[in-house]
Design goal:
This protein is α+β, with helices and mostly antiparallel strands. The chain has 13 helices and nine strands.
Length: 347
């Protein structure tokens, strides 16, 4: 017995075979004078509402729309991760720094308009120094020379322009400066030391410690503990305090090891969640692909510019995620392209 719904529909609606007539209807509703380049589900529903029907209508519509050149060129760029996360942990303090420039700010003391922020990867210790506009190139600022950064460690150890490491810190610093200044925005240079000190003495959930205690081994005393004395302040003894400082310095390495273990555990948990969303894309030699226009800048990248450009043919694979491309005429593209900047082309 056949499908009863198909029998009922065949009596009351015109039935079309998989011929050019069905393709004409799909094209007209999808990209005709009344089309919006909608998806296959929306187009199929409009076809049904107009009174048309044929077997495999959903499949035919999806196949027809998948090869639409305009839809492929302007399709959104997927931000889903392409490969698993590789957590990186550092073995000791101050072995690697991340540097970023924040600004421009309103002109402050010393004509300062920018803020150079350096963060230690392990302890998250922050060094920040305001600076004026300078003809020094960006590469020289990040070369490890002590041009602006306030820590001598940057002259001896590696530094990287890892913006992701600095973004959260930059946001917190700028938010605190704005909240402290009110309308006196040119005084941001004067408020910066207070903000940095507050950041260094704030407890961090990912490490379970403050930045100050990880670096110096002891808890910093903040003004609030002096204004309203705590038990530690009331029982303060200079001799006992010095002895405790020496003891804390002996234990600081053990505390740092515990922080390293805690941080590695957190990173493994984050990587596990991240890897669930990985949508790897692989291509074979001979496949046709589109290239991300934001990366190649071949076409106009304005408001009405395409998100993708091409197509190109895959002519070689340098590793599992980098591909050598060529134009359809056979002219090779000079460099290889990562899979994250490519998308399969349907013709």
């Amino acid at each position: 017995m056949g499908n009863p719904i198909s029998k009922i529909l065949s009596r009351h609606v015109p039935t079309l075979r998989r011929t050019q007539r069905g393709a004409t209807i799909i094209d007209e509703i999808h990209k005709g004078s009344c089309g919006l380049h909608s998806g296959s589900r929306t187009v199929t529903e409009r076809i049904k509402r107009l009174g048309y029907y044929w077997p495999r209508m959903y499949a035919d519509t999806a196949e027809r729309i998948r090869v639409c050149q305009e839809c492929q060129l302007h399709a959104p760029v997927s931000r889903a991760p392409q490969h698993p996360m590789v957590p990186i942990t550092l073995p000791w303090t101050f072995c690697k720094w991340a540097i970023d420039i924040v600004g421009p700010f309103p002109k402050g003391a010393g004509n300062a308009e920018y803020l150079v922020v350096a963060i230690d990867f392990f302890t998250k210790w922050v060094e920040a120094k305001p600076c004026a506009p300078s003809p020094v190139s960006r590469s020289e600022i990040f070369s490890g020379k002590p041009l602006y950064a306030g820590s001598e460690y940057l002259t001896k150890l590696s530094a990287t322009t890892d913006n992701a490491q600095c973004e959260v810190t930059n946001r917190d610093i700028v938010h605190a400066i704005k909240a402290m200044l009110g309308m006196k925005r040119s005084r941001w240079v004067d408020e910066l030391p207070k903000v940095i000190w507050a950041y260094r003495t704030t407890h961090k959930n990912n490490t379970g410690e403050t930045l100050f205690s990880l670096v110096y081994g002891s808890k910093a005393v903040i003004p609030a503990e002096i204004t309203v004395p705590t038990e530690g302040i009331l029982s303060y003894s200079e001799g006992e305090n010095d002895e405790r400082l020496y003891t804390n310095l002996n234990y600081v390495e053990g505390r740092r090891e515990m922080v390293a273990i805690r941080e590695a555990t957190n990173k493994q948990r984050i990587a596990k969640y991240y890897d669930k969303r990985v949508r790897a894309r692989t291509y074979k030699v001979g496949d046709l692909v589109w290239r991300d226009n934001q990366a190649s800048r071949v076409q106009n990248t304005g408001k009405l510019g395409p998100n993708w450009e091409g197509p190109y043919k895959v002519i070689g694979i340098s590793n599992t995620e980098a591909y050598k491309l060529a134009e359809l005429k056979g002219n090779p593209i000079k460099r290889t392209w990562h899979a994250i900047a490519l998308k399969k082309c349907y013709m």
